[in-house]
Write a structure and sequence with these properties.
This is (Mediterranean fruit fly) hypothetical protein. This protein has 549 residues and is of the alpha/beta class. It has eight helices and 18 strands. It has an 18-stranded mixed beta sheet, with no helix packed on it. The C terminus is likely disordered. It binds 2-acetamido-2-deoxy-beta-D-glucopyranose (NAG) (7 copies).
């Protein structure tokens, strides 16, 4: 009896304390930046929402896992001022019938990262004021044409990362205010145009990784306001020159991770507003001279990780506003030809030429305003690092990525330039942490006013291997270690990532395995050979025997 009273008192405690405001023990209650009373239960491990201990004035409820197993239903009725409800990562199995009935101020419902399999119209009755619904990362299998028909004011709908196989006709019936729709990560394979007849206001549409092979042009015809289109990681092989004819307001287009082998001339002829174009990770072998002709507003162009051999000056000549270019990972590209192309776009501020091999000396001469340069993974050594000398503006830049190269040290001149750069990456270089190779840099880096995201790591001498240079005591460094054993030089030149955890061990293990294999093969051959010989003898013996007969 006494114990029961004690438990009840404990439960009532949070209700009685805290200035007549209620707040469940396992949660925090405060006001958000818009001065709204909010409840935050983010520790996880909840098995129910402690509704009786929540203040009725609450306007924002945020409940997060991990380890929650929560059911929702008509729990929220008394929170008539509720504007935002986010219950994520909590294994909610279903939304429930009329769960939000009467909450006329509710604007945002976020039930992402749960176990919801089914969505129907009864879930959202009375929600004609809702602006945003996030059901991403659930297990929704199908939708019906009436699933959302109470949500007539909805502006943003996120259904990404579910298991929706098909969009039935009029899936988005009555959502004619919808501006943002994300269907990414559903194995849809097809987007029936009719489905989009109901969302003429759509501005942002994403269907990354939807197993799409092509799009019916009719769809674009129904979405004249579209400004952002993300169709990355699908299976497009070819885009017809009329593909984007009807979407004249596009500002951002992502087509990365498809199988495109060419950008046909005139493909973007109506996209005069386009600013951002991502064609990385395709199979582009060439960019015809007129492909980007009309893209006078383009500021960002990503052509990385394709199969380009060259990029004609002619094809980028119209890109007067281009600021960012990424041509990394086009391993077959002849960079000697690129100087001429770069001369046409000297205004670039961001350039990535990573994973390309050796960079010709004068390559970067045309650029006078470069502030971000990524030349990682290019076998750069102390000598070839001079390629960055012409880029004077790098000294006030934000990023220089020199990782995954062959740098043993950083000389004084380079240190002078590096010390003004906000962020420098030098990881995965065979750096020798002694006075003559790294002394200057170590000194400078240890006294910088700001922090780099990552710091260089020593490769030699062995006792310092793996140490960040910021942890070193400069006075205890060796003078000059010009001695590198063959073993280490080999390790450095055979693998870019030799410094990553376990890299060397992996090499050693691989070597060991190869050795064992060779021995096994030799032994096996020896055994085999001796057996054959044995058999030959017996046959010969028999033959001899036969002859003798
Ligand atoms: C929710 O899904 C997760 C992951 O598939 C599973 O482990 C868990 O058992 C499910 N929870 C419920 C209540 O069904
Ligand atoms: C979803 O699919 C299941 C099984 O295929 C079916 O029983 C259910 O009626 C479908 N729901 C809707 C809303 O179409
Ligand atoms: C850039 O876009 C604007 C509309 O945003 C358009 O009026 C202008 O013609 C475009 N410029 C070029 C060079 O295409
Ligand atoms: C493309 O332009 C280059 C000059 O940049 C020119 O040499 C080449 O002949 C052109 N190619 C075609 C197919 O017009
Ligand atoms: C290409 O470089 C740009 C600018 O540095 C960067 O924003 C983009 O993510 C890079 N693309 C890839 C595929 O890494
Ligand atoms: C530089 O490019 C490489 C290869 O594309 C990439 O992995 C790396 O993240 C880039 N560096 C920065 C700072 O973005
Ligand atoms: C690096 O190259 C410069 C010439 O650019 C040379 O003077 C210097 O001795 C070299 N430093 C190292 C550590 O090899």
């Amino acid at each position: 009896m006494l114990l029961q009273w004690f438990v009840i008192c404990l439960l009532a405690m949070p209700v009685l304390t805290g200035n007549d405001r209620k707040c469940p023990m396992e949660c925090t209650c405060n006001v958000d930046e818009q001065n709204r009373r909010q409840l935050l239960c983010t520790k996880g491990g909840l098995s129910a929402i402690p509704v009786n201990q929540i203040d009725e004035d609450v306007r924002v409820i945020i409940i997060k896992g991990p380890g929650n197993t929560i059911n929702i239903g008509q729990l929220f009725k008394k929170f008539s001022n509720l504007e935002v409800l986010r219950i994520t990562d909590s294994q909610i199995p279903s939304i429930g019938t009329e769960s939000f009935w009467g909450l006329i101020k509710l604007r945002i419902v976020d039930l992402s990262r749960n176990n919801i399999t089914n969505v129907n119209r009864h879930n959202f009755r009375g929600q004609n004021n809702l602006h945003e619904l996030d059901l991403s990362k659930n297990k929704i299998l199908n939708l019906s044409s009436t699933s959302f028909d109470h949500l007539t004011e909805l502006k943003r709908l996120n259904l990404a990362d579910n298991s929706i196989l098909e969009l039935v006709p009029r899936t988005f019936f009555l959502l004619n205010q919808l501006k943002y729709l994300d269907l990414s990560g559903n194995p849809l394979q097809d987007l029936p145009p009719d489905v989009f007849r109901d969302v003429p206001e759509l501005r942002i549409f994403k269907c990354r990784n939807c197993q799409l092979k092509k799009i019916n042009p009719q769809l674009y015809n129904l979405l004249p306001m579209l400004s952002e289109l993300d169709l990355g990681r699908n299976e497009f092989k070819f885009l017809d020159k009329d593909e984007f004819r009807d979407v004249k307001n596009l500002i951002k287009v992502l087509l990365d991770g498809n199988q495109l082998s060419v950008v046909v001339d005139e493909l973007f002829r109506n996209q005069k507003r386009l600013q951002h174009l991502d064609l990385s990770y395709n199979r582009l072998a060439k960019v015809p001279n007129d492909s980007f002709q009309h893209l006078g507003n383009l500021t960002f162009l990503d052509l990385s990780y394709n199969k380009l051999m060259r990029l004609e000056p002619q094809s980028v000549r119209s890109l007067n506003k281009l600021l960012t270019l990424n041509i990394s990972g086009n391993v077959q590209m002849n960079l000697h030809d690129m100087r001429e192309t770069f001369e046409v776009i000297p205004q670039l501020t961001h350039l990535s030429v990573a994973d390309m091999g050796v960079l010709p000396m004068g390559l970067l001469v045309p650029f006078k305003q470069l502030r971000y340069l990524n030349i990682s993974g290019n076998h750069l050594d102390n000598m070839s690092l001079q390629v960055i000398d012409p880029c004077r503006e790098l000294e006030v830049s934000t990023f220089l990525d020199l990782s995954r190269n062959q740098l043993y040290g950083i000389n004084e001149d380079t240190v002078k330039r590096i010390q003004r750069i906000r962020n420098v990456r030098l990881d995965n270089n065979p750096l020798i942490c002694d006075e003559c190779h790294m002394g200057k840099l170590i000194n400078v880096v240890q006294h910088l006013q700001w922090k780099w995201e990552t710091y260089p790591i020593c490769f030699l001498p062995k006792p310092l291997r793996g140490s960040e240079i910021t942890d070193l005591d400069v006075s205890k460094l060796h003078d000059c270690l010009d001695y590198i054993t063959d073993e280490e030089q080999n390790a450095a030149s055979t693998s870019h990532n030799f410094l990553e955890r376990g890299g060397l061990n992996t090499l050693a293990i691989l070597g060991g395995i190869v050795l064992v294999l060779i021995v096994v093969i030799i032994l096996a051959m020896a055994v085999c050979f001796s057996k054959r010989r044995a058999r030959y003898y017996t046959r010969e013996d028999r033959l001899n025997g036969a002859n003798a007969v």
